Design the sequence.
């Protein structure tokens, strides 16, 4: 799972800066049909930019560990599907007490770990407690800290008591790996229940998965899957062009697409991503404390033209923080129209008829510098001067995210359900509307998903109307694959990449 | 010679000691905090403080330094902040890529440059002599990453003769595969390196060709070939050896670039990743090993020079140094 809500990308050849890049991708197996006969003994090579730091998703393993191991080597009580729904996996059934505070899970029969040990409720208890332990770096730790106690009354039953109602609890459980409680240190080894077992991991290069024998469900379609890691998109695409890899989990270089489109040896598919590019204002710093100023900036930027120039027509426009895969999605693009005349009017009303000057903190990697230049040119048209300050991901983290020392910044936020950050006045962008905070809290304590959805729609509309940030666009989720493979995930959800359905001919 | 070796070794150790101090301090001057890489978004100040305490980056610098050097003396490179895995074994694995790459590129470059440089000097008035000079001049101007990208585009992506990048997941278990993966990077580095070597060999050879002793040797009845073997090559090799040492060292350090172009899991890419994550133990470990390698190369070049050129051994006055 993503350990960060914001994405750091890898600038390539420069030897110095870089951090971990978190895109969202994943979903259920789909993909086109491959010509030729499926070879169950095949090795599928998957090219990726996101190498795991270690193999533990509660130990700072990063996005890559989710991509490679989540759902493939490790399974949860629930699995997140392509449409963002949590479906039962290792939990055969579950009941919720009338007060919504006690969840009782019954485990699936006949599940064993790769080491041969039988799955019991003790492993589930251990795994859940591991995620919320003080040393845990799990991205869902905060959400799952509503867990008060975990009990294992018998080997097949797990009872979880929450300190308060949490409508997202089951959904959040889809992020939790069930690990063998006796496995010990999982940073360099793995012991899960999934369709693949860990093969050879060569740091800096590749991570292999071998089909697990005795898997409780449908066996993996291919004998072996190897994730091969690259530092930049160009090297990754070259590997695809020279048969070094069979597919690329997430295409980050729009310029390369032309080489694959119209080429019968490749298939290019575009799914839904959850990665949003934002111009985030510091809503606590003048002049962005003023809703009119924020709306003026939003109206002065032609998002469509920006998306066109960066992604050549791929991707989507969004009028808010909510991607179409979230249940509370509404098309709010009309709330954030491109209208320079409106921008000037709003600026005059706010007392900035002659414009103003601000510094835009711009992460050094693509597409931020391009977007910053574009935005600066557009804002100049309405009299706003933009000073672009290019910073490394690490500087961004310290200066913007931690110290909140900025006027405005560019950043990408990769996860689904990111809207709820607007309910936290202490988040880096400082948006503070007590009504919104209340709605977000109430939504989490809802009794039904419908109630939750209704409240978060209110949050969505309000933040959009108040231009809490300027949401520039939603990234495309592009998978490029050799036409010899099929059955790979198309959509982008939270970095997972289910490889068990991939067939190669 | 024994006294020289002893003195030279002492100097080497001193340089290594100084280098460790410098790299340790420089590293701490980098902006950013390693604890950031270790904590999730939304981490509280307490969590960040705990992360600092866990990796020891909250201790006084002298204490951190003595801890690190103490470990080094025991042959322990410490534990990565980010992966919590030991650094030493990973450096060893990565050297299995970087060392063969550097060594093969160096050998290939020498094999190409020495004869080519000599021909460029001896036959400088012919068309191929001039061509060699011209091409080598051009080669010096070519950046490694650019040449690498061109070779990938032509020989890997279009012709599909070589893999475009990466290293076999099983490493050297299948030597043929490993060699194939290293072929293009080796060619890339060797081409760039030989370009500058040709220039050095050519000018060293020109010095020799115009020297009095060669003319004297020939005047005394020696053939050109005989005179070259007896006197010329030995004299020409002295400056070339020191250049070779520098070239070898810079290739090792330049591995960062070529490893990035070819997605090779070598020392260079380990360093890049380490820097991006403020993973001090990794950066320190890699830089220490590279520094040691560079110092050893310089040491070896000096010793070889003294073996080749008796004037350097200090017995005769009036030598070049």
Sequence:
């Amino acid at each position: 799972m993503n350990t960060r809500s914001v994405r750091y990308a890898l600038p390539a050849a420069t030897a110095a800066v870089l951090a971990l890049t978190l895109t969202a991708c994943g979903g259920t197996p789909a993909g086109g049909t491959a010509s030729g006969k499926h070879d169950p003994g095949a090795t599928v090579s998957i090219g990726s930019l996101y190498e795991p730091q270690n193999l533990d998703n509660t130990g700072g393993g990063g996005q890559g560990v989710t991509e490679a191991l989540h759902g493939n080597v490790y399974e949860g009580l629930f699995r997140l599907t392509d449409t963002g729904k949590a479906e039962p996996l290792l939990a055969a059934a579950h009941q919720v007490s009338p007060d919504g505070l006690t969840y009782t899970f019954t485990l699936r029969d006949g599940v064993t770990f790769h080491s041969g040990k039988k799955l019991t409720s003790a492993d589930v208890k251990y795994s859940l407690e591991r995620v919320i332990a003080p040393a845990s770096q799990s991205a869902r730790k905060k959400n799952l800290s509503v867990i008060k106690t975990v009990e294992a009354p018998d080997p097949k039953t797990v009872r979880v008591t929450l300190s308060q109602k949490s409508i997202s609890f089951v959904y959040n459980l889809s992020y939790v790996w069930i690990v063998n409680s006796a496995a010990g240190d999982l940073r360099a080894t793995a012991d899960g229940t999934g369709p693949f077992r860990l093969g050879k991991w060569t740091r800096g290069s590749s991570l292999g998965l071998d089909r697990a024998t005795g898997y409780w469900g449908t066996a993996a379609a291919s004998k072996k899957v190897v994730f091969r890691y690259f530092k930049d998109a160009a090297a990754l695409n070259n590997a695809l062009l020279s048969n070094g890899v069979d597919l690329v989990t997430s295409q980050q270089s729009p310029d390369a697409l032309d080489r694959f489109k119209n080429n019968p040896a490749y298939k290019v598919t575009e799914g839904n991503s959850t990665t949003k590019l934002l111009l985030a204002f510091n809503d606590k710093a003048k002049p962005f404390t003023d809703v009119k100023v924020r709306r003026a900036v939003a109206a002065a930027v032609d998002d469509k033209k920006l998306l066109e120039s960066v992604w050549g027509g791929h991707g989507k426009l969004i009028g808010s923080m909510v991607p179409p895969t979230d249940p509370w999605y509404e098309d709010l693009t009309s709330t954030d129209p491109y209208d320079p005349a409106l921008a000037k009017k709003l600026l005059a009303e706010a007392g900035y008829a002659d414009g103003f000057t601000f510094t835009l903190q711009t992460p050094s990697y693509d597409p931020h510098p391009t977007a910053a230049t574009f935005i600066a040119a557009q804002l100049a048209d309405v009299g706003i001067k933009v000073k672009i300050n290019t910073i490394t991901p690490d500087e961004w983290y310290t200066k913007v995210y931690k110290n909140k020392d900025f006027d405005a910044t560019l950043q990408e936020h990769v996860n689904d359900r990111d809207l709820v950050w607007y309910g936290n006045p202490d988040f880096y962008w400082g948006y503070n509307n007590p009504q919104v905070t209340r709605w977000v809290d109430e939504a989490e304590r809802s009794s039904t998903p419908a109630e939750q959805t209704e409240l978060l729609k209110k949050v969505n509309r309000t933040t959009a109307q108040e231009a809490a940030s300027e949401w520039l666009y939603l990234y495309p989720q592009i998978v490029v694959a050799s036409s010899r493979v099929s059955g790979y995930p198309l959509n982008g959800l939270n970095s997972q990449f289910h490889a068990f359905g991939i067939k190669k001919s | 010679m024994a006294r020289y070796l002893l003195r030279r070794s002492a100097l080497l150790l001193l340089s290594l000691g100084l280098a460790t101090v410098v790299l340790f301090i420089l590293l701490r001057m980098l902006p950013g905090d390693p604890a950031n890489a270790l904590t999730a978004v939304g981490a509280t100040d307490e969590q960040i403080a705990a992360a600092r305490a866990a990796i020891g980056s909250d201790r006084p610098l002298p204490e951190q330094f003595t801890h690190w050097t103490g470990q080094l003396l025991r042959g322990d490179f410490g534990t990565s902040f980010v992966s919590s895995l030991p650094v030493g074994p990973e450096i060893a694995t990565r050297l299995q890529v970087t060392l063969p790459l550097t060594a093969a590129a160096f050998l290939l470059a020498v094999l190409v440059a020495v004869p080519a440089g000599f021909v460029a000097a001896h036959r400088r008035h012919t068309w191929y002599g001039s061509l060699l000079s011209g091409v080598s001049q051009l080669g010096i101007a070519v950046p490694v990453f650019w040449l690498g990208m061109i070779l990938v585009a032509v020989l890997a992506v279009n012709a599909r003769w070589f893999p475009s990048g990466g290293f076999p997941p099983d490493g050297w278990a299948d030597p043929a595969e490993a060699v194939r993966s290293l072929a293009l990077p080796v060619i890339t580095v060797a081409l760039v390196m030989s370009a500058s070597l040709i220039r050095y060999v050519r000018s060293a050879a020109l010095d020799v060709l115009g020297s009095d002793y060669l003319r004297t040797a020939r005047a005394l009845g020696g053939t050109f070939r005989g005179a070259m073997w007896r006197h010329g090559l030995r004299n020409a090799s002295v400056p070339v050896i020191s250049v070779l040492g520098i070239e070898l060292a810079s290739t090792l350090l330049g591995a960062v670039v070529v490893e990035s172009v070819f997605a090779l899991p070598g020392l260079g890419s380990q360093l890049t990743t380490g820097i991006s994550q403020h993973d001090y133990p990794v950066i320190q470990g890699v830089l220490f090993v590279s520094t040691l390698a560079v110092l050893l190369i310089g040491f070896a070049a000096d010793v070889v020079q003294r073996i080749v050129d008796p004037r350097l051994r200090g017995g005769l006055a009036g030598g070049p140094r």
User: Anything to note?
Assistant: Residues 1-34 of chain A have pLDDT under 50 and may be disordered.
